[in-house]
Amino acid sequence: MWKNPSEECLTTATVRYFQRHKGEVNSCSVSPDCQFILTCSDDTRIHLWEAKSGSLLKKVTGHTGPVKSCCFSPNGTIFASSSLDCTVRIWKVDNGECLHVLTDHSKSVETVCFSPDSKYIVSAGWDHLAILWKVQTGQKCKVFHGHQDTIYCSAFSTNSFYIATGSWDYTVRIWSVHGDRTDRILKGHNGNITCVCFSVSGMLASGSWDKTVRVWNQWNGSLIFLLTGHETWLRSLSFSLDGILLASSGHDKMVRLFECENGKCIKVFKGMPEITHTCTFSPKGTLLLIGTRGIYESD
């Protein structure tokens, strides 16, 4: 991957550009086999792309409002999406069929994610609630209460036992999938929490409007690193599969790449023409996808 420890810049001349959405790209996801890319947008659509060629394979419609989040299941057979229309939808990858429409949220659903075993999803949003659902049946399993403001982001731990949620109440909460209480409340950010993600090594990263990334020990809630360098709000975080690297993107039109061993920034991707709304590593860790009004793919 990137072996040069010095900070470098990548210009738009060396990235591939996909432009078919007619609104901001809010989220993107790579299939487990790295064959497909999923993007969702304010244009109410979800696009399925062939990763190698960049060809648009399918436009998935059904949501009646901006689609805020999308993700593939770890087994690669289905994907989920959440929307301003207050619904979560589960879809089949092969034909775009909608399997379930989940309707228990009362306001915009900002985030949805799968458990690593593909059995559950969690969704959360403007109603201050996080809801755990069973994927196979679409049944609601559990509702997590506690945040005092919008929940903007969520993530499962790599063992599927815990869920992290980040809120505009400036806190990150870690919940037990098999309980109904908050295991830990992480405080320290001075702005809305916009992104969270777990690593395989037991780290939990959170990004905020306060322009910082905080990396926590998920087991005891202690702060490991405070990462700085972004000039404006953070929008997205992604650990590489091996947990060695952490990518962050924000409103400053850049993506920063950190080493998780020492918290050092080893690379800066610049030259995006617009705000970088989302970044995500491919499952194999060889691609980093960056979403704005289109989607950029970096080799």
Automatic annotation (TrEMBL):
Record CDD domains: WD40
Superkingdom of the source?
Eukaryota
InterPro entries registered for this protein in UniProt: WD40/YVTN_repeat-like_dom_sf, WD40_PAC1, WD40_repeat_CS, WD40_repeat_dom_sf, WD40_rpt
> Which keywords label this protein?
Repeat, WD repeat
Cite the repeat ranges for WD: 18-59, 60-101, 102-143, 144-185, 186-217, 227-268
Gene3D superfamilies reported in the protein's UniProt record: YVTN repeat-like/Quinoprotein amine dehydrogenase (2.130.10.10)
Matching entries from PROSITE patterns are given as:
WD_REPEATS_1 (PS00678), WD_REPEATS_2 (PS50082), WD_REPEATS_REGION (PS50294)
Task: Name any one Pfam family assigned in the record.
Answer: WD40
Matching SMART domains, A to Z? WD40
GO annotations of cellular component type: transferase complex
Name by which UniProt lists this protein: WD repeat-containing protein 38
Q: Which organism is it from?
A: Pyxicephalus adspersus (African bullfrog)
